[in-house]
Amino acid sequence: MTLPGLRFTVFRVWGLGRVSGPATGLLPALRRCGLTCGARQVTTLALELVFFDAGSGRTLQRGAEYRDARFPAFSARFGWAVTGVAPVDQVQSVAVLARARERAVCAAGHTDGALTLHRFPCASPNASARSYRAHKCPVAALAFTPGDARLLTLGARDGAVLQVHPPLAGGTRGHGCSSDRVSDAPP
Amino acid sequence: MEVSQSHSETRAQGHAPGALRAAAAHPTLQEVATLGDGDGLRVWAAGDRAVLGRVALPSPGRSVAYWPGRAGLLVGLASGAVVYAEGAAPGAGAPGAPRDAAAPVLSARRTRAATALSVDPSGRRLAVGFEHGVLDLLDISGGPEAGPLPILCTGKGPAGAIDRIDWSEDGKVLQV
């Protein structure tokens, strides 16, 4: 029965107030996610995004408490996804995430070992992305070096540490996206 | 290893037996640190792929972060402790030589794995996320020589492990 799964999503997202709300403009994405995910997906913890007050450790429940916060380092998977960069059906495949500090690029490591590069921020849910085959296992970690000169990727089980040198021209292929707008592609 | 794009290159193959767990980039230098179950912590030069330092850890590492302004790194262990791995600092010895340098324990309040570490923008606080969803904020302003890190506050986050922590620019909000 799938309906309880959907209700579970709504409860976690709205009942506990743990996911950012209208104040950050994420409401449409959250609604879409809740309505399109199947029961298996909505029971995973990837749909949680928790904000803490760094002074007290208190969980922030209201969007007004954190809507002005800006995050120079952005690695929360769900937080990134709901900004509109990731297709909803690929949220669960994102294992790790890293945002470049000086370039408008966000890198995602996937559970199948793929590496995708996205323009960030990006408001289009169908934006294209550059996709690369990187590891033969889930990507365990990503890290941009200073100046975004290099992107480091770790395979969880293949023992490999790879580095990617921007600019990352070529290698674009669809990964569930349909947009062909050049402006949406990562630089 | 099969890499389909020419823009990727093999940086190292066979870090060591066991899983790779975490990576961190130096805040200012072209250096990176990787954490594996087999041989602990390694620091690499991003340009020439040379191993600058290695540290064997007392327990498998689960998370790593550079400590801004310090020579060493902070490492979260499967035992729940947070240690300071100074022996992995560049220039600490012959490149690639394994070190038995002491990794002083800075925090050992938890018994669950420390799965995420993140230093705040001011470099004075350390957020530690654990596999049971607990978040500790520790005061690191005194440096590693000050001994065990004082705890500032604790929060309870998601039902599962905290695997990522992001600080806001002003250091007031944490996102996990």
Would you spell out the secondary-structure blueprint of this structure?
The complex is a heterodimer of chains A (187) and B (176).
Chain A: H1 3-15, H2 27-36, H3 39-42, E1 51-53, H4 77-81, E2 94-99, E3 105-110, E4 114-119, E5 130-133, E6 139-144, E7 151-155, E8 160-164
Antiparallel strand pairs in A: 2-3, 3-4, 4-5, 6-7, 7-8
Chain B: E1 8-13, E2 20-25, E3 31-36, E4 40-45, E5 51-55, E6 61-66, E7 73-77, E8 82-85, E9 98-99, E10 105-107, E11 114-119, E12 125-130, E13 134-139, E14 151-156, E15 166-167, E16 173-175
Number of helix segments of chain A? 4
Largest interface by residue count? Answer: A-B, 61 and 63 residues
Number of E-type strands of chain A: 8
Q: Return the CATH topology of chain B.
A: Methylamine Dehydrogenase, Chain H
User: Ranges of chain B with pLDDT <50 over ≥5 residues?
Assistant: 1-6, 91-98
Mean pLDDT of chain A: 62
- Class by SSE composition of chain A: alpha+beta
Strand order of the largest sheet of chain B: 2-3-4-5-9
> Helix coverage percent of residues of chain B?
under 10%
Instruction: Profile the largest sheet of chain A.
Output: 4 strands, antiparallel
Radius of gyration of chain B: 16 Å
Number of domains of chain A: 2
CATH A-level architecture of chain B: 7 Propeller
